[in-house]
Structures are given as C-alpha cells and as structure tokens.
Design the sequence.
C-alpha cells in the first residue's frame, strides 16, 4: 500500500453522530460542496465485559452502505462535523477490514454461482 493511499485515509464524524473511516478526496467539479469517499467503513463501538466484570470498548468496522456495489460516494460537505487523521493501527485495521469484506463478497458470489449450477 502506498504512502499516498495511507495519508488519504481519514475518520469522518457526521452531524448525525455516525463515524466512518475512508479514503477522502475532493470532487474537483464540486470542490466547494462535496467530498469524495472511497471504500467507506462505518466504525462501531461495542461494550465488552470481562470475566472479572471490567467493561471496555471494542471497535469493529462494517460496510457503510450495505447491499451496494459502489465503492465511491459523493457527500455534501455540510453533513460532516469533523475530519481527523487516524492512528496508524486504525489505518491497518481499516485495510484489513476492506480485505476481509472483499473476501466475504467473493465467497458469497461463489456460493450463489454454486447454487445455480449445483
């Protein structure tokens, strides 16, 4: 993965409270109004309680827009509350999540094909 692709990865918090991680750029045709999101993943926090009763939070990522084949989205700038640079570990987890997501998609497609010809 190139350094440029890593530096484009940002965390966005929307005004509705949702948080995503994606490769972010600006639409040159509509740079005053729109952001371009590539491969956005929603970041979710899940409370976890250990056997000793200690509560902590774990993070998991999922497709931002389920059931869509699209990987590029234009969004209006005014729905974004803030943009932040993720920690290196979060960037690594993002790329791992993208890879795992693509592997699951390929597996589902293969299973669908197998059902039709099996």
Sequence:
């Amino acid at each position: 993965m190139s350094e440029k692709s890593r530096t484009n990865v940002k965390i966005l918090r929307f005004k509705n409270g949702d948080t995503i991680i994606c490769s972010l750029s600006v639409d040159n045709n509509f740079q005053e109004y729109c952001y371009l999101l590539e491969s956005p993943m929603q970041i979710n926090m899940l409370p976890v309680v250990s056997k000793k009763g200690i509560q902590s939070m774990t993070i998991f990522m999922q497709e931002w827009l389920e059931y869509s084949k699209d990987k590029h989205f234009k969004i209006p700038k005014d729905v974004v509350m803030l943009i932040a640079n993720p920690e290196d570990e979060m960037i690594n987890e993002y790329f791992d999540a993208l890879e795992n997501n693509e592997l699951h998609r390929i597996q589902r497609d293969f299973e669908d094909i197998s059902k039709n010809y099996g």
Observations:
- Helices lie at 3-7, 88-117.
- Residues 47 and 57 are 4 Å apart (CA to CA).
